[in-house]
Each structure stands twice: as C-alpha cells, then as structure tokens.
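User: Second chain of the day. Same drill as before.
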Amino acid sequence: MTEIATNDLPAPTTAYDVENAVLERYKAGAREAQPALCCPTEYEGGYLEGLPQEIIEKDYGCGDPTRYVKAGETVVDLGSGAGKNCYIIAQKVGSQGQVIGVDFNDEMLGLAKKYQDEIASKLGYSNVSFVKGKIQDLALNLDKVQWWLDKNPVTSIEGIGALEAESARLRMESPLIPDNSVDVVISNCVLNLVRSQDKQQLFQEIYRVLKRGGRAVISDIVCDEDPTPAILNDPELWSGCIAGAFREDEFLEMFEQAGFYGIEILSRQEEPWQVIEGIEFRSLTVRAFKGKDGPCLERNQAVIYKGPWKQVLDDDGHTYERGQRMAVCDKTYKILTDGNGPYHRDMVPVESYQNIPLEEAQAFDCQRTGIRHPQETKGLDYRITVTNEGAACCAPESCC
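Assistant: Same format as last time:
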C-alpha cells in the first residue's frame, strides 16, 4: 500500500484535456517502463513465459481478466496497450479463437504490433490483430478516418461537417467492431482513463458489441469514496488511474444501467493500492453478461433455488424462495439454467413435461404469484394419462 500525503500532491489545475493527459502519459510508458502505472498482479499459469520482456515491462494493468476466457472465443481487449493481455488470450482461445486489441495510442499500437510475427511463429498460428479506436466509440475505425483526412484536410467549418458526416458513415457501413460480434470484452485498468462524460457511452458500447450470452470481464481501479476536487483537477492523478476511478458501488451500477445481468465481483484487492486524502483506491475485477432483453413467453417452466439463503432477489425484482418451484418465463429459465452462465449452480431446472413451441407460447404473466404448482409443469392431462395407463396394466386380461 502506498500512502500519499495531501500536501505532496501537485497543485490542482482549473482545467485540462483528460484525453491528452492520458495519451501523453502512455506515450511515455511505451518508450520507457512506468512502474507507477502498474498495480501488482499475478497472472494465471505460464502464459507470460514466451512473451518478449519489453511487452511485459511496458504493459500496465491492475488485474487478470485473461483467466476468464475460453478456447475458441472471440475476445476484444479495450485499451490493449503493449498487447500483453492479447498475447496471453491468444494462447487460451487457440487457433480457432480471435483476439482484437483496441487502443488510441499509436506508440502503444506500434509496440504491440512489433512482436506479432514473432509470437505467431511461436504459437504456430496468428489470431491477434490490433486496431486504432476509442474504447467509448468502438464503431469508428480511426485508421479509416485518418485515411479520409489525408485526402480531405479540414480547414473550415464546412470541413468539420464533412468529417462528422464521414465518421457517421463509417460507423454505419464499416464499424470497427460490429454489433453482437464478440464473445468476451476484457479491459485491464483502462475504463477509469475515459472522461467522465463518456463513461455511460463506454458501457453502452461494450454491451453493443457483445453477442447475446456474451460477457464483459473488467479489471479496474475503484475507490471507496468520491474523489475530492483536488484529485479530480490533477492530470497526473487522472492519467495515473486515480482521478477517473469509479466509486466501488457505482462501478457495478454502470453495468446494470447498460442492461447487463449476472453482475459479479470476481476479485477485490484486500489492501488498497494507494490512499490519497484518506480515500482508498484498489483493484476490482467484475464480470457481467448480456442477454436478458426480449419477450417473456410462458412454457410452464420453473426453477428451484437451492440455497443457502432463505430467498434471493434478482435485478428485475423477482424473488426466488429456497426449495420452492418458482414460475419463470422461457427467457429467464434459459438465463438461470445456462451452464455457461452465472446462476446454474444455484438453481434446479424444472422443465415442462409437454414441450410448448416458442411460436405457440403465450405471453408470460409477470404479475402472477411466484410459485408454480407442480400440475402446471406436468400438464393438465398428466393424472388422467397415468391413471389410464395404470388401469390398463392391472386389468384381468393384462400381464398383471
């Protein structure tokens, strides 16, 4: 833990360009290692062993989101820097997977690309690409914007309008990361570097690019109290992952507001990384899933919450009683019982005895009481069918 006294802080400024402060700090970090930018992290397995030392030394983070990806997945790394996380993930997703690093810093992109061929040769396959973009605007390919600007220099107000129109066209016709195209979005200590006014858009972009059922795994710096004006007005503290840190509870709320479900703290640094003006700053890794939107259809399914709590409440206000058959719509049933999702270990699935095709399913009554009677799941004809079968079997002329 590093304690920084208030009187040791740089004098606050009245205004500064957050993006430029971050860009210049990380340009310097690409030229020479900056230990102050890195929160000590242990990475899973031996995935760092084959990576160039320059990438390891000049890549900065505060957690290990790479441990939560699987073979064959398509993964986007926001703020990929020197590429360390991308090259770790390349080994995990294998030749059938794909890794896309997104960064705004040309020097960091150059450093990451410097070793692409060497690492691909070691792995025996090439599955990593690096692209230039802002992580809060994943639709805009900045290399294509630059190509257009080279041919159409902006020298007037009209030129600004033309640039905006071209950017809008590129987002629509040639997005950097298309909608619903990614299995996992990761980031390692980068979201806090985005301007406050762009953070809501940032979470919306993460949600947009993920496939249904996809997930975000984000390691970032959070604080236990709101940063003071002195902290917020210090560009060194912003580019140093401090001033832009999310308050711990609000960080999780940002995922919820963007539409994610299954939001879970995977790891939380026990001791603060830094303490400034009595405010604790530490690393937090969060996972969240996409895919709870859509119609609610009745297919007579239920789930039983195993415990240990007497009851639990989900993000949409549904209560699950321990040991009770709780009525759920088809969408919720799939979310709660998905083997790749966050809930299946806590729920017993109770499928309907009679399959109801989705195209024939009626709207689920979200106002109904939570408990589903077993006869609903078994169907109205269940008792009649069993009784008749039993009578037939035990009739005098039967095998009995």
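The first strand starts at residue 2 and ends at 4.

User: Great, on to the next one.
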